[in-house]
Amino acid sequence: MTGLIKEIMPQHVAIIMDGNGRWAKEHGVPRVAGHRAGMESMKKIVDHSDKLGIKHLTVYAFSTENWKRSTEEVRGIFKLLVTFVNRDLRELIKNNVCVKILGDFSSIPEDSKKALEKTIEDTKNNKGLQFNIALNYGSRDEIRRSVETIAHKVKAGELEPSDISEDVISEYLWTGNMHADCPDPELIIRTSGEQRLSNFLLWQAAYSELVFSDALWPDFSTEEYERCIAEYQSRDRRFGGR
Ligand code: IPE
Ligand code: IPE
Ligand code: MG
To answer: Is residue 157 classed exposed, middle or buried when 0-12, 13-18 and 19+ CB atoms within 10 A define those classes?
Structure first.
């Protein structure tokens, strides 16, 4: 943890894991092989986040827009995720990691859903790192769902329109206290040199520091991760004040 300041470690880091496809192209292998290499990178970053004392890690694994990709690629991504949770479940439990899914994973392939449900169940009481996997996640969809829930409550007379505060809207997001229950991320990292949010945590990112890394996700090392955190620690966060 060279050069990092423990006292200002972010509590919640969110990562847009991008560049698997370009990594595969660079290595002359199929795109799915890029996603496999990306899974290994994810594993490494989960372990390292835990070591650094980060409390919540959210990774963007599959967006609501990623269904546009070929069936082969989509199948491959979900299969890899199952391999990851099955292979590493015992270790996640041992390390006290609690796994949550952000997004509507009811519509993902049945075998993947089962494996993920088991992982969530088996790790739900763990008090260590909270590891959120954003899967079939889209932030506009997330906000729309929150608004729908609130509208139902108003219609049922459980809530007055004037009760709809920012906190109420946050409550019904996937990160809200009805679901994953975690604070807004102080730091959002995107790899592969792209500089956009691609429908990730739009509401929660209001005051997040954004750090961009040129590394393709499978090449993203723990050193590069620490460099991103160090960049975050060097920022002057003002939240609109002076
Ligand atoms: C990120 O890598 C993983 C997912 C979106 C599932 P990409 O597959 O987007 O990689 P590039 O952007 O094509 O290199
Ligand atoms: C964002 O990456 C989604 C994930 C990392 C899961 P994309 O590669 O899908 O985003 P765009 O298409 O470059 O914006
Ligand atoms: Mg991409």
So the answer is: exposed
pLDDT of 107 reads 85
- Domain assignment present for 136: yes
Classify residue 46: in a domain, yes or no.
Answer: yes
- The DSSP code for 55 is S
- Name the closest-CA residue to atom 3, ligand 2: 63
In this structure, is residue 163 part of a structural domain?
A: yes
Predicted pLDDT of residue 12: 98
Give the domain extent around 60.
6-233
Q: Decide: residue 119, CB within 10 A, 0-12 exposed, 13-18 middle, 19+ buried.
A: buried
Mean pLDDT to the nearest integer, 160-183:
97
Distance separating alpha carbons of residues 156 and 151, to the nearest angstrom: 9
Is the pLDDT reported for residue 242 higher than 90?
Answer: no
Q: How many structural domains is the chain composed of?
A: 1
Strand (E) or helix (H) holding 187 = strand 187-190
**C-alpha to C-alpha distance for 221 and 208, rounded to whole angstroms:** 22
Residues with CB under 5 A from ligand 3 (ion): 18
Give the pLDDT confidence score for residue 62 in this predicted structure: 97
Domain membership flag for residue 240:
no
Cβ(66) – ligand 2 distance below 6 Å: yes
Check if 76 has its Cβ closer than 6 Å to any atom of ligand 1: no
The CATH code of the domain that includes 107 is 3.40.1180.10
